[in-house]
């Protein structure tokens, strides 16, 4: 037990018994006030020489202070009088004893021995009581009455009894009737309430606060201020009492939630809708959090959630027009081109009046696929971008809300990856409000089989988020928890979790039969009234509500729903534009979507960027640069002087020129500041002072846009999703995500499949995300070679059998506009410069994936002249062979770094007149028109596709059908590359070299 606490209890016990047990002071005229230095020094000297001669309370007091580091040799004991000792001081001043009384209280007095024994008993009693209180505070949530079905709480009283036994109150006999009424002094830092409470009252209050319908899990937080703050809001008597008006508001929201679900069930009984029955309190909970946050000044909310309860949230939180939602139920087709998505996956963005505060607020709900929790980082990224563009550095204006399922929250790794971003400086949204719909079953899986942790929310403990478990059948407890949670987020700018422990009235969906797997649970559910019924009866008993008002309000809302259905039947189609979660107001207005603009830049700007990027930090900063960096900066300066760029300069000039034009650039991924292959060095580190850095690209122009580059957590899935979400908020920024190796994007494949490549087709949502995937076979093994180009080509909707007229001058731009994704394997820094800038210069947005090299980052031939980047220049979809004769015997098409290897081999074998090499830089959309020109240029040549990847990996199958389509059966394209393999690359360096040698021999064979 904490010594200071025991000392406090003993001092208070002295007051209680009026026992002044201390050594008499030497000076009979001295005041006995313990603030008197002489008194304390005498007492301290006695303790040092003979501790048993002073009262145990003072012995513990001095012992505790010394243990905590007090130095009485340098500072008198007077300085250590704390607030707890103020009680003793006040008592002694009020009841000043005479000299004779002081002598009588000497340790030699037999009365003192009896007093000491009594105080020892009191120590143990108080210790037992404090231990019991701590058990409720620390573990109360484990025995709280949280389950509305009563299934998981059957043994809750056994847990409480064990705490009582472990605390020692039974051993001390405190459970006896006469002692249960005994009053104990309760310090405020132990439990908030009256200073003196009987054990009966202590137990009753602890159970009300910690083991009733709220289970607060917060004692693990490593910040005492946060713990005290939460205790203040939970333990203060009367904290949960609601006014009549608030009860009525809460009831009205429950009515709308419940009646809406009943209306859908009545009209479309066989439709999947993933209703919220069993957790109807979710909607009032979200609305209460929004009310509280709006009161604190918030103006915008970004919501991410899976399908359960989504339709109700759209209508009753976002206030989506009913006719737009019902149009999906009556089977109308989309007005715009695209496949669309099921209604419970769609997003929205609306501006509504918050009735509680009379403020207009914005609510965005992010479209989400059936990957449940994968929306989390997308939501956080969008929220972070909105905060950035709103200048909301404190996170007071834009709030993220994430609604989870219980089994997915603890089962899906993306939850952990996303929540780990919460306090990272470049990713934080200053606290996320998390709701968990804890219906205690995962599809058909019992909680005993979908988690190992005690609670489904335990993943949130890793970021010290407080977790408020609450019985979802107690709306007033939910209301209180939501207020506390919203206030906590406002006060501390940290994540907080509200765990709504509920049930699922139907199966996984409305046409599923849950009794197959949960027969006992659903036997209880079928006989259980819903929360609205119970709360209505409660308010009627309290006189807050009448039956007439209940019937009238229910009928009024049902009429609103009927009117919405009538209006939906007048619609002719579903407008996907009504379901955009990130509408770019004004971006498309007055623009020619097929406009082609040069992505070149004035040479003066290029040179300025190059010189700044190659310069040492300003002398006044006294910044010590690494010797290796000094050499790199010198080499950059030499290239700028020669008007050429390498890869790092090409990147810097693309970024710097966009910043100069007012385009914000957000760049993240693992090790992006330095670059995995040590080529970038956008962030320089002071070699003698920790955490001092310099970024030259942030200091190029006085009025430039902000450049944010940061190393991310070791996550592909969540960080990729975050960057995607960031890119959807505002089209006037370049958002880049780079994988450490292209292979590592494998762990982000669900994000790519669900959000990146099909986003516009499913949700009519454009995004200009730029993904950089390092790719190239260099003998580094199966996980450090291939970005799996074939996967992304398979995800494109480039149809080789549906080619527009090749002579159309707008052929290339129409391809970019009509297809879903851009894939490129560029080979020069100049072309990289253009394709990065093209992401912004297009009058629309498409995700772009670039298979960046490793080998070419410093290759002497992978250089570009300024002439390739100045005004009037463009990205090149292919590089023709300007050296080869039109009479060559073999025309080799290739992509990526293999071009340089083929070129070197061709020169070595003196085959320039026999072999032409054409690089295809943009793989998708496939440049049919430009490739056709190359085929026409070499009519008598054999046509070959050469790649370093294994057969049926890389671009081969994508290229084969398209090249053959252009060849029109006059000849067939043949393959040169590695043979088929289940692995992406050889693990042996020798095998890699042998494969490469065979590849070159096959390619050069005539």
Automatic annotation (TrEMBL):
Kindly give the InterPro entries that the UniProt entry links to this protein.
Answer: 2-oxogl_dehyd_N, 2oxoglutarate_DH_E1, DH_E1, KGD_C_sf, ODO-1/KGD_C, THDP-binding, Transketolase-like_Pyr-bd
Biological process (GO), any one: glycolytic process
What's the chief localization of this chain?
mitochondrion
EC category name = oxidoreductase
SMART domains noted in UniProt: Transket_pyr (SM00861)
Q: Name one Pfam family in it.
A: E1_dh
Source organism superkingdom = Eukaryota
Record localization: Mitochondrion
Its needed co-factors are: thiamine diphosphate; Mg(2+)
Gene Ontology terms for molecular function = metal ion binding; oxoglutarate dehydrogenase (succinyl-transferring) activity
Q: Name one GO cellular component term.
A: mitochondrion
Domain Transketolase-like pyrimidine-binding as annotated: residue spans = 645-859
- Entry's EC annotation: 1.2.4.2
Keyword tags: Glycolysis, Magnesium, Metal-binding, Mitochondrion, Oxidoreductase, Thiamine pyrophosphate, Transit peptide
Q: What does this protein do?
A: The 2-oxoglutarate dehydrogenase complex catalyzes the overall conversion of 2-oxoglutarate to succinyl-CoA and CO(2). It contains multiple copies of three enzymatic components: 2-oxoglutarate dehydrogenase (E1), dihydrolipoamide succinyltransferase (E2) and lipoamide dehydrogenase (E3).
The record's comment on protein family reads: Belongs to the alpha-ketoglutarate dehydrogenase family.
Q: What is the name of the protein in this document?
A: 2-oxoglutarate dehydrogenase, mitochondrial
The species is: Cryptolaemus montrouzieri
């Amino acid at each position: 037990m904490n010594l200071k606490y025991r000392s406090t209890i003993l001092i208070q016990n002295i007051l209680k018994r009026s026992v002044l047990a201390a050594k008499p002071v030497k000076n009979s005229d001295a005041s006995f006030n313990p603030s008197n230095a002489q008194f304390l020094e005498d007492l301290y000297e006695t303790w040092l020489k003979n501790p048993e001669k002073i009262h145990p309370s003072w012995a513990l007091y001095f012992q505790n202070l010394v243990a905590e580091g007090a130095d009485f040799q340098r500072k008198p004991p007077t300085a250590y009088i704390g607030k707890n000792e103020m009680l003793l001081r006040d008592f002694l001043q009020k009841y000043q004893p005479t000299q004779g009384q002081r002598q009588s209280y000497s340790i030699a007095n037999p009365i003192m021995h009896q007093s000491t024994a009594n105080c020892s008993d009191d120590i143990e009693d108080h210790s037992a009581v404090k231990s019991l209180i701590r058990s409720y505070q620390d573990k109360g949530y484990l025995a709280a009455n949280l389950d509305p079905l009563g299934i998981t709480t059957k043994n809750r009283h056994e847990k409480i009894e064990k705490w009582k036994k472990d605390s020692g109150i039974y051993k001390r006999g405190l459970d006896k009737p006469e002692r249960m009424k005994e009053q104990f002094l309760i310090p405020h830092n132990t439990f908030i309430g009256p200073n003196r409470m009987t054990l009966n009252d202590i137990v009753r209050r602890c159970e009300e606060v910690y083991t009733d319908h709220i289970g607060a899990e917060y004692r693990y937080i490593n910040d005492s201020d946060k713990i005290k703050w939460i205790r203040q809001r939970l333990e203060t008597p009367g904290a949960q009492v609601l006014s009549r008006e608030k009860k009525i508001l809460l009831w009205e929201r429950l009515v709308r939630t419940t009646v809406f679900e009943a209306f859908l069930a009545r009209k479309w009984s066989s439709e999947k809708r993933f209703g919220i029955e069993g957790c109807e309190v979710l909607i009032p909970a979200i609305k209460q959090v929004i009310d509280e946050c709006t009161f604190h000044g918030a103006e915008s909310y970004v919501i991410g959630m899976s399908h359960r309860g989504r339709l109700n949230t759209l209508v009753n939180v976002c206030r989506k027009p009913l006719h737009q939602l019902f149009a999906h139920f009556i089977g109308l087709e989309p007005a715009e081109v695209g496949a669309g998505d099921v209604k419970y996956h769609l997003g929205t963005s609306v501006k509504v009046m918050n009735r509680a505060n009379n403020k207009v607020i914005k609510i965005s709900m992010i479209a989400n696929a059936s990957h449940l929790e994968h929306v989390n980082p997308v939501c956080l990224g969008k929220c972070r971008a909105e905060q950035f563009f709103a200048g909301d550095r404190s996170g007071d204006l834009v709030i993220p809300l994430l609604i989870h399922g219980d089994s997915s929250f603890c089962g899906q790794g993306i939850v952990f990856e996303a929540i780990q971003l919460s306090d990272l400086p470049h990713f934080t949204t200053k606290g996320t409000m998390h709701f968990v719909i804890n219906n205690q079953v995962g599809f058909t899986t019992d909680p005993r089989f979908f988690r190992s942790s005690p609670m489904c929310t335990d993943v949130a403990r890793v970021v010290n988020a407080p977790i408020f478990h609450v019985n979802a059948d107690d709306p007033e407890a939910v209301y209180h928890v939501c207020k506390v949670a919203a206030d906590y987020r406002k006060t501390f700018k940290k994540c907080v979790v509200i765990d709504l422990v509920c049930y699922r009235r139907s199966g996984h969906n409305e046409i599923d039969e849950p009794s197959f797997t949960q027969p006992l649970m659903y036997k209880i559910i079928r006989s259980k009234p819903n929360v609205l019924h119970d709360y209505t009866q409660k308010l009627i008993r309290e006189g807050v509500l009448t039956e007439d008002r209940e019937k009238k309000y229910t009928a009024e809302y049902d009429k609103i729903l009927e009117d919405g259905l009538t209006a939906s039947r007048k619609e002719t189609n579903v407008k996907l534009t009504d379901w955009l979660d990130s509408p770019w107001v004004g971006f498309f207005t007055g623009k020619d979507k097929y406009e082609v603009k040069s992505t070149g830049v004035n040479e003066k700007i290029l040179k300025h960027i190059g010189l700044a990027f190659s310069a040492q930090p300003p002398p006044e900063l006294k910044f010590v640069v690494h010797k290796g960096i000094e050499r790199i900066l010198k080499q950059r300066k030499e290239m700028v002087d020669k008007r050429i760029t390498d890869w790092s300069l090409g990147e810097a000039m693309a970024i710097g020129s966009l910043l100069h034009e007012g385009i914000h650039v957000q760049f993240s991924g693992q090790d992006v500041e330095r670059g995995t292959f040590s080529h970038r060095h956008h962030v320089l580190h002071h070699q003698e002072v920790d955490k001092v850095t310099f970024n030259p690209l942030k200091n190029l122009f006085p009025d430039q846009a902000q450049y944010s580059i940061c190393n991310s957590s070791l996550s592909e899935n969540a960080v990729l999703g975050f960057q995607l979400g960031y890119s959807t908020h505002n089209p006037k920024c370049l958002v880049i995500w780079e994988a450490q190796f292209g292979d590592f994007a494998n762990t982000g494949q669900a994000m790519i499949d669900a959000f990146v490549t099909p986003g516009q087709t499913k949700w009519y949502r454009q995004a200009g995300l730029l993904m950089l995937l390092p790719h190239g076979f260099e003998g580094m093994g199966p996980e450090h070679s291939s970005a799996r180009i074939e996967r992304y080509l398979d995800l494109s909707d480039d149809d080789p059998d549906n080619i527009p007229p090749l002579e159309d001058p707008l052929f290339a731009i129409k391809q970019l506009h009509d297809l879903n994704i851009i894939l490129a394997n560029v080979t020069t820094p100049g072309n990289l410069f253009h394709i990065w800038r093209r992401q912004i210069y297009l009058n629309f947005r498409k995700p772009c994936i670039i298979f960046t090299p490793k080998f070419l980052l410093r290759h002497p031939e992978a250089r570009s002249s300024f002439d390739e980047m100045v005004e009037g220049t463009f990205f090149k979809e292919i590089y023709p062979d300007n050296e080869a004769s039109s009479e060559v015997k073999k025309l080799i098409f290739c992509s990526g770094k293999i071009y340089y290897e083929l070129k070197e081999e061709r020169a070595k074998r003196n085959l320039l007149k026999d072999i032409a090499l054409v690089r295809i830089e943009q793989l998708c959309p496939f440049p049919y028109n430009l490739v056709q020109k190359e085929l026409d240029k070499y009519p008598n040549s054999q046509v070959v596709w050469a790649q370093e990847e294994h057969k049926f990996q890389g671009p081969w199958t994508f290229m084969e059908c398209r090249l053959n389509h252009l060849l029109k059966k006059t000849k067939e394209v043949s393959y040169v590359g590695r043979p088929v393999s289940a692995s992406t690359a050889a693990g042996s360096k020798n095998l890699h070299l042998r494969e490469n040698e065979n590849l070159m021999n096959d390619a050069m064979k005539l």
